[in-house]
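User: Fold this; C-alpha cells only.

Assistant: Input:
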Amino acid sequence: MDQTSETPQERTDDIFSQRLAKRNEMITAGENPYGSRTDGVVRSADAKKLYVPGAEEQTAQVKAAGRIIGFRIMGKASFMHIQDEQGRLQLFASRDVMGEESYKKFKKLDIGDIIEATGTMFETRTGEITLKPVSWRLLSKSLRPLPEKWHGLTDMEARYRQRYLDLIVNAESAAVLRKRSLILKELRKYLDEKGYMEVETPMLQYIPGGAAATPFKTHYNALNADMFLRIATELSLKKLLVGGFEKVFEINRNFRNEGMDRKHNPEFTAIELYQAYGDCRTMMDLVEDMIRTLALRVNGTAVIHVGGRDIDLSKPFRKVTYHELVRSAAGENWFDLSRDEKYAKAKELGLQVFPNWTDLEITHEVYEKLVEDTLIEPTFVTRLPMELVPLAKKCEDDPTLVDVYELEINGQEISPGYSELNDPVDQRKRFMDQVTLSGKDPAQAVDEDFLTALEYGMPPTGGMGMGIDRLVMLLTGADSIRDVILFPQLRPSK
C-alpha cells in the first residue's frame, strides 16, 4: 500500500506492528526489552556540568537515562537526544567506540524508547555538550509513536486525556505542573513557620456541610448508610478548635457535583485554616502576606503575569465593602430602592433576573455580573449580606452584614475569610433558616454534632479558605483550571 495514502490511524497501527515485531524478536533472541533497575544515573543538566573545558581527557564516567525524543542515523555514527526530568541530553553513538554488534542494535532503537547509556562527555563542533556512550541498555520499548515532532500534542482534549503524552512533548505543561508541586511545598513551609499544624479530616460525611453545594452521594455497605463526599472541611476543623488546637490547616480534596468550566472542576484541591483568638482581619493580613510570599519564593518576583496583564502583589491589597461596589455599578441609591425597583433597574442594566427572585438575589446578580470581573488588582471585598455567609459572625455595627472578606484577583475569587460564628444558638437559627429556604429535611441538612461541639464553646476564631487550583493558575499565569490539574475530570471517551 502507498504509505502517503494512509490515514493517521493506519500509520499508527503500522508503526505499532513494526515495533511489536522488534520487541518479540528481542525476546526470541533472549534479550529483555523492559530492563531492570539502574543505579548511579546522572540527570541531563548535571551530566553537562561534568564536562571539563580544555581538558585533554574527560575522565568522568557518566551514566544517563531517558526517553529518546530525536534520532539521526549516519552510517558509522548517530546522534540522539534523550529527555529526562531536567531536560535533554545529546548522545553521539559511534561504531568504533561501541563495537559493531552493539552499534547495530543501537540503530534499531525507536523514538520513544527509554534507554540507559554510559560514557564520557565531550563538546561537539557546534558547541553542544554531548555524551559519547561506550555501552547502552534498553530499559523500556515504546510500542506507540509519540505525537509528531514539530506539531506536538496540540489538541486540548487529547492533552488533558493523555496527560502523560502532554508531559513528554510539551515542556510548558510540565513546567506548570512542577511549579504546582513547588507552590504546595512552599505553602506548607510558610504555615509551619507561622505555627500552624496540618491535620486530616474525613472525606466521607453523613451530612455535607461548610458550603452551599451539591454533593456526590455514595453508600457505605458496612454501615448500611448513605454518605456524601465532603464539599468542605470547615465543620470538622472547627471541632478541633473546640478541642483546644489553636492553629490548624488542611490541604484537602473537595467534591462538588456541579458544572465544569475554565474555573471549576468537580474534584478540586483547597486549603482551609483556622486560628483561635483571631478574626477576619487576622485572616486578611495572613492571606495577603501568604500570597505575596509564595510569589516571591516560587517566581522570584511579586509581579505576576495573568490574563494578559501584570499584577503587582507587592502593593497593599485594596479593601472595599460589598455595598460600595454594588453602588458603583448600579447607582448610589441602589440600597434605598424597593425590591421591585431593583428588579426594574437590573433589567435596565442588561441583567437576566427573574420575577420570583428575592431582593438579595437581584443585588448579588449585580455584584457577580457587573462587579466581580472588574476586580483585577487584589481586592478584599468586605461586609457581605448575612444570608450569603451563614457561618460567619455578624458585624457589630450592622447585624444584616457579616464580618467577612472575599479576596478577588484578576476577576475571580481566590479566598474567602471570616470572623467565625461561635454562638451555637445563632448558628442553629441560621441553619434552620437555610433549611426553610431549601425545603430540605432538617435531619439531613443540619449537622447536630457540629452544633453540639459549639455548645461546649469555641473561642473567637479567624478562618479562611483558598482554592489551590486557582492559586496555581494565578502564580503560573495558566488560563484554565485544567492546565494546573494533572488529570482533570473529562467526559468519558467514546
